[in-house]
Amino acid sequence: MKPVLALVMTVFLASASAAQERLPETISPNVPKGEELDFEQFLWKNRLVIVFADSPNDPQFVEQMRILADRPEALEERDVIVLTDTDPAGRSAMRLKFRPRGFMLLLLSKDGTIYLRKPLPWDVRELTRSIDKMPLRQQEVRRRIEQES
C-alpha cells in the first residue's frame, strides 16, 4: 500500500449497528477538526473519492463505505485515496470547498478538477469505469503497456 503523507491510514467505521469494521489503507478517516487538508499534496499523484454525510450512521454512508471496502485493490490500482467527512458542524476545508448537502460522493481527478458528484452510493465498478474514461488514466494505461512491451 502507498503511504499518504500525514493522513492516518488505519480507520474504524462505526456502522449503524455499532459494529467496528476495519477498512483498507486506501480509505482515510475524517480529517480532525482544526487541521487543514491541503489538496495540493494530492495534485498529479492521486485521484480523490470524497464521501460526505451528516453522520457516520447515515445508511447511505455506511453502504458506500462497505462498497468501497469490498474492492480496495481496484481503487489502489487507479491511485485513488478515499477521504470522508461525516461532521457537518466541523466545517472542514472539504465541506467549505465542495458544499455537500447530506450524503454526497465526489470524484476528483489528479489535476484537482471535479469529475463527478453523486447523491447516492456508487459501486466500485461504476467508479473505476468513470476513472478509466479520464484522459490522464488512459495515458497511464498506454504508458504501462508500452513499458511492458
UniProtKB/TrEMBL annotation:
The DUF4174 domain extends over: 39-140
Q: Does the keyword Signal apply?
A: yes
- The entry's protein name is DUF4174 domain-containing protein
Organism domain of life:
Bacteria
Q: What keywords appear on the UniProt entry? A: Signal
Q: Which residues form the signal peptide?
A: 1-19
